[in-house]
Amino acid sequence: MLFTTQWLTTVFPNYQGDVLTSSSIAEVTTDSRSKTQQALFIPLVGDRFDGHHHVKQALDHGAVAIIWNESIPLPAFLPSNLPIYFVTDTLVALQHLAIAYRKEVNPLVVGITGSNGKTTTKDLLASIVETTYKTHYTKGNLNNHIGLPITILSMPRGTEVLILEMGMSDYGEIDRLSRIGEPTYTIITNIGESHIEYLGSREGITQAKLEMLNGMKSDGTVIVDGDEPLLAGIPDRINVISCGFNDTNDMIVRHVKVEEKQTIFEIVDDGVYDIPLLGNHHAQNASYAIALANQLAISKDNIKIGLHALQLTGMRFELLKGRNDVSLVNDAYNASPTSMKAAIEVIKQMDHFEEKVLILGDIFELGEQSDTYHISVADVIEPPITVVYTYGYSAEKISTEVKKNHPKIICQHFKTKEQLSEALEDHLKKDTLLLFKASRGMHFETLVELIQIK
Q1: Is the pLDDT at 242 greater than 60, yes or no?
Q2: In terms of Cα–Cα distance, which of 240, 236, 281, 235 is closest to 258?
Q3: Average confidence (pLDDT) over 112-126
Q4: Where in the chain is CATH 3.90.190.20?
Q5: How far, in Å, CA of 196 to CA of 198, rounded?
Q6: pLDDT, tens digit (0-9, with 9 covering 90-100), for 313-348
Q7: Burial per residue of 418-447, b for 16 or more beta-carbon CB atoms within 10 angstroms, e otherwise
Q8: What is the mean pLDDT of residues 379-397?
Q9: CATH 3.30.2350.10: does it fit domain 106-308?
Q10: What is d(CA 66, CA 56) in angstroms, rounded to the nearest whole number?
Q11: Bridge partners of 100?
Q12: CATH 3.40.1390.10 spans which residues of the chain?
């Protein structure tokens, strides 16, 4: 049970129906299609849909109470004893309820944002914290103004640590999420180029990310990428722990070694760790999680147990096996110039492969600087990379630039996925490593599925 119909009257005092018998609410849903049990249904309204039109389906699927926009007439078929809570805006009501329930459960809250690495850092941190505390965290990519409240409202009573991933594409969005979550600890993984089309510059992205501080508790702590100069301007009144490779950081990462299935690294004055992820950037992501684990007094043994037990959200640098024993890395969930370069650097470090093939697609939301940023990806493409295949509109800039700089690297741009897929058939062999990297909208997982062994 999350709460009762009677408790809901303290949040939404305008109601009708049989609410005072304290019927249990076991879950909250905004999707009338989902099969539920003892659910509160909150009908949201968008440009192309109105959940109020689907209330009967929600009731048929297990809803026992609803929130309702008071300006919309109630359907005649609704039972007179059905608990109904009237509000002026159902989305605001969802967020308001999430705040009230968070305060009711009162967990320690961690907020995580950043242009790249926030989901991996969330997964790392959750895996560690679960060894010691009753933990609830963002599943999948429910990190926006709807997903974050849903995450909070799926939190079991008794939760001790709540880990919330917070995403954004424009100003004001992180501000709203941080005020809903009210974190005690905040992690800002880095400042990249994602959403620069809307925010104008990396300085603008920094400003938007620092909105995390608006909802953070006054005695809170921020853990940041200490190698990023744009994050040096956090107000002195806020506790800051910096992590990175520079010697000026509070937690210094060094001696990184990328092996076939793991990355080993040292944190100065803290110890040696290994993670089942590949790349320097993942060592830094792990350092954020370790820094926070130290703040929560989690033992060194449990930190290492948690790192080894990591379960990653899908399509984030997954090392898989394909047909003819080819190795492939599925990093196709999303992309920015920074994350694409980081993935390529990892591929370069992975030994025991005679052929290394990059399959790269468009990076979205780069605005007027799109060509420049795509061309910049070529800066890190050099031997031992042997082949570069690109697909999309802007990605052609990458293969063209590589061809100019490194004539010995095979470069080709494809107009269709079918042509690209055919070309990959020649590379499906044991000593070959394929990297798939593009923005989510390119749907590169369809290429991976044609090769991957299920």
Answers
A1: yes
A2: 281
A3: 93
A4: 318-451
A5: 5
A6: 765 677 889 999 999 998 888 889 999 999 999 999
A7: eebbebbeebeeeebbbbbbbbeebebbeb
A8: 97
A9: no
A10: 11
A11: none
A12: 3-88
351-352-355-361 Cα dihedral, nearest 10 degrees: -50
State residue 266's pLDDT score. 98
Q: Which residue has the tokens 């009762």?
A: 4
pLDDT of residue 314: 66
Strand 355-361, strand 387-391: pairing? parallel
Task: Report the C-alpha gap between 175 and 211 in whole angstroms.
Answer: 5
What gap in Å lies between CA 357 and CA 177, rounded to an integer? 39
Return the SS3 of 404. Answer: helix
Q: Which of 212, 199, 204 is nearest to 365 (CA)?
A: 199
Residue 352 pLDDT greater than 80, yes or no: yes
pLDDT score of 260: 78
- AA letter at 29: T
d(CA 49, CA 338): 36
DSSP-derived secondary structure letter, 233: T
**Contact call for residues 71 and 88 (beta carbons, < 8 A):** yes
Do 120 and 316 contact (CB within 8 A), yes or no?
Answer: yes
Residue 111 has pLDDT above 90, yes or no: yes
DSSP string over 411-422: EEEESSHHHHHH
Q: Average pLDDT in the 133-153 region?
A: 94
Residue with tokens 């990653």: 312
Residues of the chain with CATH 3.40.1190.10: 106-308
Average pLDDT value for residue range 272-288: 94
Hey, which CATH number is domain 3-88, 1.10.10.10, 3.30.70.120, 3.40.1390.10, 1.10.12.10? Answer: 3.40.1390.10
- Residue 37: what residue type? Q
In 3D space, the residue among 157, 162, 153 whose CA is nearest the CA of residue 184 turns out to be 162
Distance CA 388, CA 124 (A): 31
The reported pLDDT for the residue numbered 110 is 98
* Alpha helical stretches, state H, 212-279: 212-215
Cα distances (Å, whole numbers) of residue 208 to 45, 156, 211 = 26, 31, 5
Name the CATH topology of 318-451: Protein-Tyrosine Phosphatase; Chain A (3.90.190)
